[in-house]
Sequence to fold (1157 residues):
Amino acid sequence: MGAIGAYIKPYRMRIALGLIIKFLGTLMDLIIPWLLAYIVDTLMPTRNVPLILKAGGLMAFCSVIAFTFNVKANRMAAATTRDITKKLRYDLFEHILFLPADKRDSFSASSLISRLSTDTYNVHQLVERSQRVGIRAPLLMLGGMLFTFQLEPHLATVLLLLVPLLSLVIWHITRKGIPLYANVTEKIDDLVRVVRESSIGIRVIKALSKTDWEVSRFEKVNQQVRQAETSAGLMISLIAPAMTFLLNTGFMLVILLGAFRINAGQTQPGKIMAFLSYFTIILNAVLSIRKIFILWSTGGASAQRINKVMGTPVGMPLCEPDHVDNGLHISCESISFSYNKALNDLENISFALKRGETLGIIGPTGGGKTTLISLCMRFYDVDDGRIRIDGEDLRSIPLHQLRLRFGAVFQNDVLLADTIYENISFLRDIPRKDVEKAARTAQIADFIESLPQGYDTRLDIRGSNLSGGQKQRLLIARALAANPEILVLDDAQSALDYRTDAALRKAIGQEYANTTMVIVSQRISAIWGADHILLLEEGRLVDSGTHQELVERCNDYRKIVRVQMGGATL
Amino acid sequence: MKKPSKTKVLPVLRRFWQYLARRRMVIAAAFVVMIASNLLALVVPLLSGAAIDAIGTKAGSVNFPAVFYNCTLMLVCYGASAVLSYLLSLILIRLSQTIAGCLRQDIFENLMQLPVSYFDTHPVGDIISCICYDVDTIGTSLSTDLIQISSSVVTVLGSLVMLLILSPALSVVVLVSVPVTTFVSRWQMKRMHPLFRRRSKKLGELGSLIEESISAGRAVSTYSCEDAMLRRFKNKNNEAMDAFYLADAKSVLLGPMVNFINNISLAFGSVMGAILCLSRRLTLGAVSSFILYSRKFSSPIREAANIVSEIQGAAAAAERVFRLIDAQPELPDRENALSLPAVEGHIGLEDISFSYTKEKEILRGITLDVPKGSIVAIVGPTGAGKTTIVNLLMRFYDVQSGKITVDGTDIRDMVRRDLRMSYAMVLQDSWLFSGTVYENIAYGNENATREQVIAAAKAAKIHKHILSLPQGYDTPLEDGGENFSKGQRQLLTIARAMLIDANMLILDEATSNVDSNTELEINEAMQCLMKDKTCFVIAHRLSTIENADLILVMDQGRLAEQGTHHELLQNGDIYYKLYCSQFKIYK
Fold:
């Protein structure tokens, strides 16, 4: 359980209180058969009918207490678990939000989604049921045993001998069950992945009439989930019959032993009967918790998966301040980086950018353009070299402060199923007028204002009621809304027509003149006005300079210009 | 708003029965095993009663042979009962897993038949929550609850018979508790149903938020708005957990309540038993058996009562599951829809109009004739309705007035599958799935050979990159290809389109994220792809469409201009301005 224990700890007093109440309620369940034995053994021979009636009344009273206390305790358990799960899920979500990008990639989105939903749910079930049934049953068992000891210590030893045997069986089977259930949750990750992908890609699937194929792809994972669940279930189901059999055998032994003892005059038949009555309670208690064993295994497996996320360090380490006065806004000093730490995805890249300048990055797909800007925003750490902002080493600026300087649009950014205002403000409570200014600059204000509900129009899921270009302009407006020091656009204008794109760049230049820009684009027109242009190919810097310089001296660059412009400006 | 729960639970159960009914034999087998196992368990108190009677009440008078005999029989019964109960679990787990699997499969199969608009308005997270949480709730309930309820009924009935045999007078006391318990359970169920429904719904909403925020993860860290996202999450999480608690808090009442009824009847029973025994109408062994049976009685009733709440949860979950299974699929093909396996590719648009919502018309009154084999380019500012035309051509949506024809046939009179199969396409959002690179390229054509796949990748200039991956073509894509750049994803989808044998082609911003050198390199392959096909090309880089036979200039849902590149340039209007804008420098 590990870290999950820490979530239960603050509630230990409440849990303890609940358990005491539960204990008292359960005690009543034990007293009732004891009263029964008292009636049969002690009162019946005296033929005292009024006393028998009184004892009966007492039994009724105990029943009331049992009812009230059990309800109270169960409610307390439900409330405590609610609070524990709230906190656990919240913290897990928080932890995931702050996971560094590479860690998040390695867990995969589908798996994180199912950890937040299925796994926390499993833990919830475990914690709640353990309090409600898991305590009641051992209490009944222990209490029943105590009573039996007090009744007939010799016969009770039979029970005592059974306990280690039972524990061994349970321990052994649940130990095997946990990895089986871990396997189930992994298969569920796959299931989530297929559902998620097929829902997002429904247009392509329908266009290619691949629905049957998708169904069979789903069938495969569905089959695997089924098999995994079945084999885990079969293992855990061994517990109940094994326990019942052991206990029943004990029951039989008690009768047998009892026969000898009665024969020898060492005990009375009434005691044997009460004994058997307790035994039935114990047996039923054990039977009633057979679900707990499944919960132990599923909850245990889920807890491990949650712990794995929680155990992954969040954020990025903060380094010692390292400052140089170079008068530059962003400077990149011969950096290298590799995702898999084998082959370098970027090698020895340098550039220098003053405040308010624009950097254009161009080059073939897969050349490392997105990687370079991800490094500038510290989604990953460089393996070699150094990136400075205002002369300060990136790694010495608290992540939160660093990111606040940026406004960025990445290639896979998505819109929320929320209002247009909220999509631009993006949870930052940006004043309406800043949002409107950003929308105007991003050339999307006219469109928004033409909608009946304007900025309060709700978007469909992933903004699917918008065209590609409208989506990109909203994302750009989002990036501009907080007046960032640095604006990063990663091929964020690809779906814009040239005129809109040009108007957009012009507006940014006017409205956000002090903003330093980094523009990744496939379009020469988007970057040729930049103060510096980097041409990246396969992770290496082919050349850098202004448009004029590159046109004059760089063949590869000239080629791009020729292709796109038909030589119009050379 | 709140309809009476009674009218809601029953249809769900009936519906559910259809799933069970298909496995009638398995269920029958389960029942036989269950009854056998319970009967064995019921015989045991008789045996133990006999053993105790054989022990007698006085020292030295124990009838040992009878005790041994009964004990041996008990042991045999226990052994058999354990084996049977494991057999029962085995059958039940297989049964419930089969049914859960069927439900998931049915949900997904219907999901794939739903119109595209469904996915535009229903969050994936909610769908996931339905397929995972709701189906799991049903499955769990099925594997344990169904049989436990039945087993309880059998035990209760069996015990009742035994009680009647032992002492009719005593049975009356216990008998009272059965109808009372039933009544109490029904009353509770009624009150709980809306709570459980709310619980499933809230969990679905939480699921949607989780899916959306994980998908937007990069943006959340970019804007450092983790705290605001957390606040949002906190709200939904609290709502979900509070709904969960409310359902819980109500349902925990039932178990203790039923227990109470049983305890009270036990109190009465024992007092009466004692009095009856005093009046010598019962033996001590009979009282013992009686008490054992009443215990046997109470425990399954309590179990059943506990289960009621779980069945409620399952019923609420089943409601959501069936709602998804019953969601209205795309309109079926018309009755005498034409199957046109080989489409020539002559497309006609006759005065079509369309809007997604009533407020805003996207296209109006567009008429067009596209002869077979011609290349049509669609240009215009974003939001002018270009992608909508694609949606209509492929029948993701149907036109509201006018009609679209292919080879002279209204596309609404065609088998939808045939229509879609006659297009190859590369769409704006290049979608990949977590199969291998190879599977992703061959996605549109299952019969493609490995050579063809590699040839397509080479033509799309992505072959070299694929070879650099750890397992080449067999490298799995992580989470829908997030380890590929957008440009690379587009190249993969272009390779995919190259393998599709169709006479019509749609390129919606197919190369917008591909660098121009690569674009030039794949040009030949693209020309080859477009050859002899009726093509619709949407592109902003106008250099790519100069050779089109017909260029349509869209503006605010209308066809503003049409003609060839040269004609339009000479017009000097919208197209001319668009064309010039790509060469202007703005700083």
Observations:
- Chain A has three domains: 73-310, 317-405+486-495+515-570, 411-483.
